[in-house]
Amino acid sequence: MTHVNRRLLTGNAAAAWGARLAEADYVPAFPITPQTEIIETLGRWYERGEAAGRLVMLESEHSMLTAAAAAAATGVRVFTATSSQGLLYAMEMIYAVPGWRAPFVLVNVSRALATPITLEPDHTDVLAARDSGFLQMHCATCQEVVDSVLIAYRLAEHPRVRLPAIVNLDGFYLSFTREPVDLPEADAARAFLQPFDPGKAAFRASKPVSQAVAVLGGSAYSYFRYETHLASMAALAAYDEVAQDFARRFGRRHAAVECHRAEDAEVAFLMIGAFSTKALEAVDRLRAQGIAAGLVRPRLLRPFPVAALRQALLGRRAVAVVDQNLSMGKGGVLAMELASALYGCPGAPVIASYVGGLGGRDIGPGEFEAMAKEALEAARTGEAPPPRLLYTAAELREVRKLQAIALAERRETGATP
Fold first, then answer.
1. Any residues with CB less than 8 A from the CB of 222 and at least 6 apart, and which?
2. Max Cα–Cα distance, the chain, nearest Å
3. What is the rounded average pLDDT for all residues in the chain?
4. CB 266 within 8 A of CB 376
5. Does the pTM of the predicted model rise above 0.70?
6. CA pair distance 373, 383, nearest whole angstrom
7. Residue 152, exposed/middle/buried by CB under 10 A (0-12, 13-18, 19+)?
8. Which of 299, 193, 179 is nearest to 246 (CA)?
């Protein structure tokens, strides 16, 4: 294990440190809350000469992503960051650049999407990019943020992968929360990553080449799209290699799927992101009550770690999946993906689907207890409960009160209800 420098950092500062330790050469950027602190921090370092690199402000997230991929295609190590509506503004390029096979790291600081507009977090923004070809890693702590940025570069630049990667952290709950973070020494981080080698396909001003990105006919298109899919699948084995090397060098193990007291659990929570730390606390509290609970948390979401999830969950009686997202007309994304991963497997648990934490709504200790008990009852009867929104009667009364006030105001002003 290498010598470390412990600091008290926000999640945003940890992301900036990850880019600094990776020695990112180029940072195309566009500000948006709650991500802006990341590029502000990098900008100060570059201005003061404390870090080597160049930050360039673009006119939009769309241009930012285009510039990031174009620079990566020349062999430059690129870092950038966005949030929420900014990620959606860049969505055309989010789907385009994985096909360029130009690896770089994009930190997304999750924030719920309009409408209504809010500054608080959930995962609907980042999950809108899950089918794009970007790798996806999800963080629960500030330590994981800096570590995941380094791991993401190593994984994205792996010769069997060569895809861009998203590192996701929750806005406000993690982006502005200060936690102790162990920063690797610069030399150790440099040894872990090694210089970025773009290979023979890199663009060089001294040796101009042209490459076409348009095809006619579904045969060629299908081939290249499937090649990108195979590269993403290759990242599963590559991730294990990278995580093992990271653990050997820095003493921290970041498995694709993290488990807490899940080996003998009767009911397990499945969650991603910072709110999973609430589930971890709930598991220990439920254990003290005699309920055999556990937590299973995917760090790697794309590619989807099916084998690791099966190993963690088969043999459990029930799984309570808590989604901080909502796929309109269907439900929680993680619950659907887990159901497909476990379908037809002997010993598969009953899956209880809950949508909670939308727009930053808290999930209280009593709700975790209720979910665990309901999921175990479903396992006893063999019938999964219908998907539901975590919401209290008191919250509903408050919303109804606000609606009544708004209606009364409209009537007083003669506006149409």
1. none
2. 73
3. 95
4. yes
5. yes
6. 14
7. buried
8. 193
Higher-scoring residue by pLDDT: 216, 360: 360
Q: How many CB atoms lie within 10 A of CB 369?
A: 16
Cβ pair 247, 254 in contact under 8 A: yes
Structure tokens at 27: 């940072």
The residue ranges of DSSP E strands in 194-266, in sequence order, are: 257-260
Question: Which tokens in the block code for residue 282?
Answer: 């709930």
Q: How far is CA 336 from CA 186, 318, 322, 333, in A?
A: 41, 15, 11, 5
Name the residue among 347, 282, 352, 277 with its Cα closest to residue 320.
352
Residue reference for tokens 């439920």 = 286
Residue whose pair of structure tokens reads 């997202």 in the numeric block: 325
Q: How far apart are CA 85 and CA 90, in angstroms?
A: 9
Q: Which of 105, 79, 104, 93 is nearest to 26 (CA)?
A: 79
Task: Look at residue 250 and give its three-state secondary structure.
Answer: helix
- Report residue 365 as tokens: 């200790």
Instruction: Give one word for 49, left, alpha or beta, with left for phi > 0 and alpha for psi -120 to 50.
Output: left
